[in-house]
Description:
With about 200 residues, this protein is of the alpha+beta class.
Amino acid sequence: MKKEKVYNEAVSGDEGFTPGDGYPSCDGEPCANVSDETDEATDTLADGEPVAEADAAKALEEAVAQWQDKYVRLQAEFDNYRKRTLKEKMDLVQTGGRDVLLEMLPVRDDVQRAVDAMQKSDDLEALRAGVTLISQKFTEALRRKGVTEIEVLDKEFDADFSEAVARFAAGDEKKGKVIDVVQTGYMLGEKVLRFAKVVVGE
Length: 202
């Protein structure tokens, strides 16, 4: 009886061998080469990989291009916004200054008329009245722009609104209070435009 050696074991050619015992079953027909089928599947997979990599690279390039476009657009929008806001600020400063100057021009006209009147008239009372009216008009023009005088005379000295330039003995009643205003202080809205220069009692 013929013997075949499989997996280093002697096996009888007609004993104990059935299809499926470690070998493909071909129903008695010659089987195709299994290694050839495996090689064909491997080749198909290998051929498919470059295609997938190319698609991924193309998608990545498209995504990068989209983000670059968004970045360029955003940068341009921000640059335009910065230029626009800068121009608006400059216009606001110029407009604000123009409005103040327009308010001051009528006062300047009154001052000029007062100067002309002093050269032609000797009526001191009329001249005083004219100058007083000019001062009131000027104060009203400042008030319309939010500028108000800081009232400090005979009040407790407050360093947040006043600057002490001198101290004089004024008795216990005036101690720590403003007894004289050397230079008037002004507020612009809620902020100090100019501190009042005062004399404080001690």
